[in-house]
Amino acid sequence: ATPMAIAVASGFGARHGILVKNGEVLETLSGIDHVVLDKTGTLTEGSMSVTSIEVADGALDADGLLARVAAIEVQSEHSIADAMVAAARARNLGPDRHGVSEFNNHPGMGVSARLEGRRWVAGTLSLLQREGVVPDPGLLERARVLEAEVVTCVHVAVDGRHVGLVGVSDRLRPDALELVAGLRAEGIGMTLLTGDRRGVAEAVAQQLGGMEVLAEVLPQDKDRVVGELRGRGLRVAMVGDGINDAPALIRADVGIALGSGTDVSIESASIVLMSNELRKVLMAVRLSRRTLRTIR
Ligand code: ADP
Ligand code: MG
Q1: With a 6 A CB cut-off, is 110 part of the ligand 1 pocket?
Q2: Which of 3, 165, 203, 262 stands 20 to 30 A from 56 (CA)?
Q3: What is the reported pTM?
Q4: pLDDT per residue over 155-188, tens digit each?
């Protein structure tokens, strides 16, 4: 394509809220054969809400559990933490952060702290297990059922005992299906990449008509996954929104950030979508292919 054609295409993209950092990016995008999709905040809206609370027999009640966990999660910036804090507020359960000490954030896993003289851990099963907690069989079974319904389970332990779980869920973006179907029609393969549990990730992938799923990937490993896909000879675009995604956006042949994403992810991307419409990813791919097809 001539520099003129690329300039025209870039202008067209910009008018549709697709900001391309330079002309070479469109050329690289036209040759992409694989797209990695972050789940939380990218395929889904990323505004979670608490949809269920389960407690183990003989443990404290649901409100008591939510009040304590929210008091701890107030210090986390994760969308899951925001959901728990909002749910506690809605039920007049604080959150009251007084009395919380030794707060610790475990990225991609959860949080821990001391409260009322006890040690609290809230997060993934792996985090609880790392802390020596033996999972409660009843709660494990509930979690399995909830995960198949696309509910993310935050497991809670007090002084080493698994006492309950808080289920949080999120909605798919309205155009997620259109994006996935469109990319598939362009002959592009896809991988769903998430720190969330396999059960939840598989359920999302299935709702979208199926794709490769890489779940339970820690934030610091996301870019390694992109590197491995490129190592297989694939030309990879990565679509993401979070701080977690920034290294992967850089590692990909083309990084695409959602406009609502964190500043770090926007700086790390070579294409930024001003709106959060996922179908703009498809529009960008088609635009690049139409513009560059002539020279290949
Ligand atoms: P994603 O890759 O889907 O954006 P993250 O890597 O941020 O997800 O988190 C992975 C998982 O770690 C979450 O699904 C959740 O189970 C757990 N987690 C992370 N942060 C928190 C938190 N503040 N409280 C509870 N659980 C958390
Ligand atoms: Mg995300």
Answers
A1: yes
A2: 203
A3: 0.88
A4: 999 999 999 999 999 999 999 999 999 999 999 9
The per-residue pLDDT for 279 is: 95
Choose which residue among 37, 38, 40 to substitute to test ligand 1 binding: the one with the highest number of ligand atoms within 8 A of its C-beta. 40
- The reply to whether ligand 1 has any atom less than 6 angstroms from the CB of 265 is no
Give residue-wise pLDDT tens across range 126-161.
Answer: 999 999 999 999 999 999 999 999 999 999 999 999
Report how far ligand 1's centroid is from the alpha carbon of 208 (Å): 22
Ligand nearest the Cα atom of residue 69: 1
- Residues marked active site are found at 38
Q: Whose CA is nearest to atom 16 of ligand 1?
A: 124
Domains of the chain: 3-45+172-295 (3.40.50.1000), 49-169 (3.40.1110.10)
pLDDT over 90 at 264, yes or no: no
Burial tier of 64 (Cβ tally within 10 Å: 0-12, 13-18, 19+): middle
| Residues 124, 110: Cα–Cα separation, whole Å | 6
In the Cβ-directed half-sphere of 134, how many Cα atoms lie within 13 Å? 1
Asked whether the predicted pLDDT for residue 296 surpasses 50, the reply is no
Mutate which of 36, 38, 76, 124 to test ligand 1's pocket (most atoms within 8 Å of Cβ)? 124
ipTM, interface predicted TM-score of the complex: 0.95
